[in-house]
Amino acid sequence: MTFQAAIFDMDGLLLDTERVCMGIFKEACEAQNVPFIEELYLSIIGCNAKRIEQLFREGYGPSVDYPALNQEWRVRYTAVVKHQAIPVKEGVIELLEWLKANKIPMAVATSTQHDIAIKKLELAGIDGYFDVLATGCEVEHGKPHPEIYFLAAERLGIVADACLAFEDSNNGTLAAVAANMITYQIPDLVEPSAEVIKLGHQILPSMLDVLIDLKNRKA
Q1: Which of 8, 117, 144, 187 is spaced 20 to 30 A from 134 at the CA atom?
Q2: Are 44 and 147 in contact (CB under 8 A)?
Q3: How far apart are CA 137 and CA 69, in angstroms?
Q4: Using CA atoms, how far apart are residues 178 and 184, in angstroms rounded to an integer?
Q5: How many domains does the chain have?
Q6: Exposure letters 179-191 (e unless 16+ CB within 10 A, then b)
Q7: Helix axes 49-60, 66-81, angle to 10 degrees
Q8: pLDDT for 124-180, tens place per residue?
Q9: Are residues 180 and 91 in the same domain?
Q10: Which domain, by its residues, includes 159?
């Protein structure tokens, strides 16, 4: 396996964000007297804002005031993530340091909007590792479409099939594999689906396991 760059998802992969986000969504549902549907919520992980709205409108139907629910959720979420550091997940720093030592350029490809993504990375203290950032508000088609990964690779100046991609969600993994990247999936809240498992990419329990695998392959 040879690679020239590494592209990372952010929430649930670099940062332990997904549990925080889900907890805040539950609070927003309670405040708006809307039922929390866990299966529906888990289906939106890895998607950008446009796709999230589509899935929620389909899942909740016309009986729920989606704009009001979304506003409640976003206000509560932004108040947390713009002022509090989200914990970095196990093995992330070690992997980033190893890639940096090997002079591998790095990017983030996240469905999160640009300003919030920058703030999250800054507060977590890992923004300095990344050369470029591609965000959900910059693409027409969000994950599972590969557009955001092609954008990140283009900004790095590296062809897509020479990039490593790291994801936690099924939506993100589908996007990375569709971009023909060497893909590692490190599941967070959602286990890989049967459809995703069939893709034949690497599925490992933590970033530490990814680092071990990369070192062994590079040796």
Answers
A1: 187
A2: no
A3: 20
A4: 13
A5: 2
A6: bbbbbbbbbbebe
A7: 140
A8: 999 999 999 999 999 999 999 999 999 999 999 999 999 999 999 999 999 999 999
A9: yes
A10: 5-16+87-218
